[in-house]
Amino acid sequence: PCAFAALVALSFSGAIGLTFLMLGCALEYYGVYWPLFVLIFYFICPIPHFIAKRLGDDSDAASSACRELAYFFTTGIVVSAFGLPIILARVEAIKWGACGLVLAGNAVIFLTILGFFLVFGRGDDFSWEQW
Question: Max alpha carbon distance in the chain (Å)?
Fold first, then answer.
């Protein structure tokens, strides 16, 4: 029951984040679809975590070099996703209002991804590995 509610909440917040992204692209005043390139960052964001989980040791050590490298790459991906719309707005490829909507969508989507790993990333009976 609790996992079902978390899944519904995460899907709802993901839909809100994608709505912000689409509004930044599709509103007639903005009308440019360059910000959709942040979708690439959404898809590659969890990949370092998956690789570190697969390659890392199963001990519960406080720190692991593989896990720390995955955090580093994930941080770079997230910062790049926030930097892309700012650069596009700075070179006037998109308007600043569209940049704001895309940044709001980025915040919601990345918090949703983080929430997914916090809720389903534990090694208990109901985990993301079953999906």
Answer: 53
